[in-house]
């Protein structure tokens, strides 16, 4: 009985600690997002400003994804476990905020969060911004797993994934010939969903390709890039294949079409991208060749 | 540039980079035929035993052969090489046999498949003949070469004089020889029993479709 009660008390202590980290996370925003200080400190009224609620909720989801991946090991005592949790959480949160800052600077460079979220209540902006935050958190979770306890590996992986994902976020305009910035200005929500589908499919692919042990940095980079190219080769097969299998007729010339048609197209396209990415990683990472090709 | 061109370029890039980084390509030697194999190991006395053959891949096949190189006084070494299909098909009938021999004195290299150890049999530097109670002359290696019968995968088998005699006739006529009672080779009892190569192991554990269903029906319990 004593042991069970003791365990419960430890859980409550760690619960309070998590709240403490959550509280500090709210203020850590100031370090990188000085301009949106008011935004994060302001009370949330979802019924009045959904864009603001989504914006804050995404940051919270990102935080939860990162914290959720932490493993608390009490083998070396409570003090050690708490110290370890605090250190790992602070590092992860700082990297998460830095990632979000970088991605926003790349994708939403001509927007300010305060203007779009508070003044214009731009839901389209909030959705894209939220997507970027969640994607950053998901990539960071994989990075944390691969890096293990090594801070050097963590920094290396963070910078490496930042480059890959940062580059991929800019490919949207190139691949789909859709101007994201213009769509956000026009509060065009389906394009945002389309974009979310696009970047989430990249997150699925990147999380898979970086998830292998680091033996040597040079070999790691090469293997990751080769795997990435393999995913890019496989991805269109599914993306085009699904359209054929389910007789999906796409818009041929977006510019000449009605707004409603484009809206439906964007949302559905985003979902298709996401599905294709899931199927792609099944083919690229879930196939174990085992002894099919003997190790020489 | 059209999307298809970019896609094809990506495939070529992937194949090129993967091939240059492939450990198999970098570390496995390609041997064209038996003469190339002979040139690869110029030492003497030398006997090369074919331990294993494997056809790897589904559509684009790679043909692998594993050899045991025994060079007189040196340590024996196992070498796996890539070969063309023709050489693979020719050699796979001779797993467990010595496919190449070069004596200390002889000028030529013999490629006639023979039971392993024929090169050293009858050579007084390596062993001696002893007549058994049944009246048969049997070959015994000196203590210094006691590991040779293990390398040849003999088990309890001991070569006889009549076997050596038949082997020498076969070499002269360039006819593959599998032992007096066909004990050696892929179908030979001695090779099957004693040669611990992947080739034979895989044959014994080939999985069948019913095994998959049987596995599904198994109850998983934690062993105490």
Give the percentage of residues in beta strands of chain B: 15-25%
Question: Number of DSSP helices of chain B?
Answer: 9
Q: What ranges of chain B have pLDDT less than 50 throughout 5 or more consecutive residues? A: none
The residue fraction in helices of chain A comes out at over 70%
Low-pLDDT runs of 5+ residues of chain A are none
Quaternary state of the chains: heterodimer
State the secondary-structure class of chain B. Answer: alpha+beta
The string of secondary-structure elements of chain B, in order, is HHEHEEEHEEEHHHHH
Quick one: how many beta strands of chain A?
0
Largest sheet of chain A: none
Strand and helix layout:
The complex is a heterodimer of chains A (296) and B (224).
Chain A lengths: L1 H31 L4 H5 L8 H19 L9 H30 L5 H7 L3 H25 L3 H19 L1 H6 L3 H6 L3 H21 L7 H29 L13 H27 L11
Chain B lengths: L2 H19 L1 H5 L1 E2 L3 H7 L5 E11 L5 E9 L6 E7 L1 H7 L6 E5 L24 E5 L5 E5 L6 H4 L9 H13 L15 H6 L3 H7 L4 H9 L7
Parallel strand pairs in B: 1-4
Antiparallel strand pairs in B: 2-3, 2-5, 3-4, 6-7
Describe the fold and architecture.
The complex is a heterodimer of chains A (about 300) and B (about 220). The longest helix of chain A has about 30 residues, at about 1-30. Chain A has helices spanning about 1-30, 35-40, 50-70, 80-105, 115-120, 125-145, 150-170, 170-175, 180-185, 190-210, 215-245, 260-285. In chain A, α3 (about 50-70) packs across α4 (about 80-105) and α11 packs across α12 (about 260-285). Chain A is mostly helical and about 300 residues long. Chain A has one domain (about 50-285). Chain A is globular. Chain B is an alpha+beta fold and about 220 residues long. Chain B has one domain. The interface of A and B includes residues 222, 223 and 236 of A.
């Amino acid at each position: 009985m004593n042991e069970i009660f003791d365990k419960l008390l430890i859980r409550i202590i760690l619960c309070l600690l998590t709240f403490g980290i959550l509280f500090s996370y709210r203020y850590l925003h100031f370090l990188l997002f000085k301009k949106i200080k008011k935004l994060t400190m302001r009370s949330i009224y979802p019924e009045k400003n959904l864009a603001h609620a989504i914006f804050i909720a995404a940051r919270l989801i990102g935080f939860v994804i990162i914290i959720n991946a932490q493993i608390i090991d009490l083998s070396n005592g409570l003090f050690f476990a708490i110290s370890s949790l605090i250190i790992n959480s602070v590092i992860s949160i700082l990297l998460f905020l830095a990632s979000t800052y970088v991605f926003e600077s790349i994708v939403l460079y001509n927007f300010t969060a305060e203007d779009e979220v508070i003044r214009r209540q731009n839901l389209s902006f909030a959705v894209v911004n939220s997507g970027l935050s969640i994607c950053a958190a998901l990539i960071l979770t994989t990075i944390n797993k691969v890096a293990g306890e090594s801070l050097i590996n963590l920094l290396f992986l963070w910078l490496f994934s930042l480059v890959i994902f940062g580059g991929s976020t800019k490919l949207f305009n190139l691949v789909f010939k859709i101007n994201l910035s213009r769509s956000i200005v026009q509060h065009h929500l389906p394009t945002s969903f389309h974009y979310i589908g696009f970047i989430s499919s990249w997150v699925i692919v990147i999380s898979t390709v970086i998830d292998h042990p680091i033996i040597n940095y040079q070999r790691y980079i090469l293997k990751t890039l080769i795997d990435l190219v393999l995913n890019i080769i496989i991805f269109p097969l599914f993306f085009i294949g699904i359209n054929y299998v389910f007789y999906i007729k796409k818009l041929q010339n977006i510019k000449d079409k009605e707004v409603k048609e484009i809206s439906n197209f964007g949302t559905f396209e985003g979902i298709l991208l996401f599905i294709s990415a899931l199927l792609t990683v099944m083919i690229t990472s879930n196939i174990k060749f085992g002894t099919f090709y003997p190790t020489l | 540039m059209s999307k298809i061109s970019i896609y094809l370029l990506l495939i070529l890039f992937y194949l090129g980079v993967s091939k240059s980084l492939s450990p198999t390509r970098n570390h496995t030697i390609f041997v064209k035929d038996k003469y190339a194999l002979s040139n690869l190991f110029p030492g003497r006395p030398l006997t090369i035993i074919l331990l294993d053959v494997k056809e790897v891949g589904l559509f684009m096949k790679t043909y692998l052969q594993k050899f045991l190189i025994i060079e007189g006084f040196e340590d024996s070494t196992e070498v796996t090489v890539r070969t063309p299909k023709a050489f693979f098909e020719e050699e796979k009938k001779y797993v467990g046999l010595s496919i190449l021999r070069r004596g200390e004195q002889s000028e030529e290299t013999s490629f006639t498949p023979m039971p392993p150890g024929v090169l050293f049999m009858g050579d007084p530097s390596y062993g001696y003949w002893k007549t058994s109670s049944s009246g048969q002359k049997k070959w015994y290696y000196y203590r210094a070469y006691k590991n040779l019968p293990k390398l040849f995968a003999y088990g309890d088998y001991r070569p006889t004089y009549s076997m050596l005699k038949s082997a020498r006739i076969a070499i002269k006529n360039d006819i593959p020889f599998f032992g007096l009672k066909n004990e050696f080779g892929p179908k030979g009892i001695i090779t099957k029993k004693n040669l611990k190569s992947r080739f034979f192991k895989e044959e014994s554990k080939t999985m069948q479709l019913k095994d998959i269903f049987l596995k599904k029906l198994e109850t998983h319990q934690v062993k105490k």
